[in-house]
Amino acid sequence: MHRILGPGLLESAYETCLIHELRLKKLRVESQKPLPIFYKGAMFDCGYRLDLMVENQVILEIKSVSSLLPIYDAQLLSYLKLSNCKMGLLLNFNVKMTKSGIRRLRI
User: DSSP code of 63?
Assistant: First the structure.
């Protein structure tokens, strides 16, 4: 996908194409899945949304930025904790080579 599209597009373009690719592989993908916060027995909708949830097991956080900052790791780790998901991928498409834009995080 990155070879065809190249770097520098909006995150939404990569998200749309990645959804298509994953569904072609017969994977279940949820896009912009709401992520409520549970706190002391109450549920709050604070507007958080997961970019992609694949097979109800892996969160994909899509970026198109000049460099991955520590705040993006913190964001994904928080999403993992709030969703009870164990693994997430931080995907930055604004890179020359795809492998340099991928970070795998586990909790």
Answer: E
Q: How many domains does the chain contain in total?
A: 1
The domain that contains 91 carries what CATH number? 3.90.320.10
Task: Using the Cα atoms of residue 43, residue 48, residue 53 and residue 58 in order, give the sign of their dihedral.
Answer: negative
> Is 61:76 a contact under the CB 8 Å cutoff?
yes
Tokens of 26: 């017969």
- Global confidence as pTM: 0.93
Distance (Å, whole) CA 54 – CA 28? 6
The low-confidence residues of the chain, meaning pLDDT below 50, are none
Full domain range(s) for residue 36: 2-106
